[in-house]
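for the writeup, i need someone to sanity check this before i put it in the appendix. the sequnce is what the collaborator sent (i think, or maybe the updated version? ugh). structure was predicted straight from it, no edits. if anything looks off just tell me and ill rerun, i have time this weekend
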Amino acid sequence: MSMVGRDVYDVDVFNVEEVYQLFELTKHFKGILSRKVKKVPALRGVTVCTAFFENSTRTKISFDLAAKRLGADTVAFSASSSSLKKGESLKDTILTLDAMGIDLYVVRHSEPGTPKFIKKYTKATVINAGDGFHAHPTQALLDNYTIWEKKGKIDGLKISIVGDIQHSRVVRSNIKLMKMLGAEVTVCGPKTLMPLEIEKSGVKVSYDINEAIDGADVVMGLRMQLERQTSGLFPTLEEYHKLYGITKDRLSHAKPDVIFMHPGPMNRGVEVDDHVADFERSVVQEQVTNGEAIRMALLYSVLGGRMEE
């Protein structure tokens, strides 16, 4: 099943079979990352541009490393030092980059829909690395791969997501993918941080964290995204932690083999305490490793890589 040339705006560009195909390929590339020499020439001659108009650490470095591990040439576009600061339009910026032979753009932007806008002016493949509150498909892919790797399945699992649901593009993509793969999803947070009519996406909604975590196979914390909030939606961070922080005691309501996840960066003492962040079933660091492998699998698939050892 070919994904060559597929633009990835959100996880719903894939079907279930394609998602598991990506997971199997991710397993292969994760094996390559464990070797002394972590490179293969699968995308030799291809040029990947990481066009990030928002700050990023994990996603940007992960995509850059993924492309380089596959032998691609990389271009890191920085909006802060580009001609956009001189008044050049985004359209003209893309046309200029296109003239330099870009094969794929990885785009992060604060405005929803920017990856689709960029596609209007390029024949290159476009991958969304996060657009406003809208979507973050590769984060959802790596999160679900991590669950699949640890639990051996996703279908039938109870997954509880706690935190700033309203401002999270990660949760929107994760809900789509988790439901597609058969999970039962519960979201939990203050009413002021819960999107209207989120129940229509097929999730359960709880405002009681103990109830939300009860019997969960997977608990995911979400960062309080203060930079995206336009008004005070809760009294203080201390009050938030008191009511919705994921603590050792609260996690005891989950199943004994629960895993804890977080897309990062974590605010310790706000959405999660130190014990949960560091406990033996936390897979936060594995999510980072898996992020590089899943992005290798995605780049390989949409750019028509050659499997060479």
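The beta strands are 47-52, 73-78, 104-109, 125-131, 158-162, 184-188, 204-206, 218-221, 259-261. Residues 284-302 form the longest helix (19 residues).
thx in advance!!
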